[in-house]
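Example (one chain per record):
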Amino acid sequence: MTAVRTSPAVAETAADLRRLLADLPGPVALVPTMGALHEGHRMLVRVARERAATVVVSVFVNPTQFGPGEDFDRYPRTWDADLSAVADEGADVVFHPPVDEVYPPRSVGVTVDPGPLGTVLEGAVRPGHFAGVLTVVAKLFGLVRPDLALFGEKDYQQLTLVRAMARELALPVEVVGVPTVREDDGLALSSRNRYLDPDQRAAAATISAALRAGGAAGPQGADAVLAAARAVLDERPDLLQDYLELTDTDLGPAPATGPARLLVAVRAGSTRLLDNTAVELGDLR
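Predicted structure:
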């Protein structure tokens, strides 16, 4: 027998959201998104569905995490397709608020300061970005009151900062990282991939190849990891490198040995692409 798909309830205001959640069982899982959903988002909803009785997906393009000249106005907005996707995956509630519901006109401008970790890597390239991210995530945590929230590992710095915020501000939510979903050629799925023309899309496959090369060099130590990854990236001068960094798993200085994280950001034309991978560092130099 074919399962009958049930459309999730849609809340556009905080009052609607409270009313809907009052009648639904816990635990509650939140999947925060900016829409333009792809298979990576679907995976987040599937994992949430396995972990919780009630799944809430937010679809909100957050203006405060975009800097001047960034792509807020042209960021893809695909509401009908997004609603269909989360219905396919069994979400119970979709929170789809207008901007003034999340940032009311009477607001005095209180935000979440990400601290020093918000000024490196993506934070160095996009000043203020993580204050916007953490502020909207904190608002969503307050509105939904989830028991757990799911984020993709592709945006590893974001995941690390959300975990730190929940821990250091004593927010009662478990922050769950879900492994990156990739295309067949290794490119990490992203809503911005649709901006790429065919040549840029072909070049973008180099990003994951560089991460694999760096990961394979882990037993030779940190310098070997960076050299191997950089050599692959340098084969595509049409990819402009913003950074290639090796850190510990909390984005501090890379350890001499043990678990580490290799992170990269490049530009293909006007499109910024992020990726990262876990690396196990040895000392076989």
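Caption: The beta strands are 9-11, 28-33, 54-59, 93-95, 148-152, 174-178, 239-247, 258-268, 271-281.
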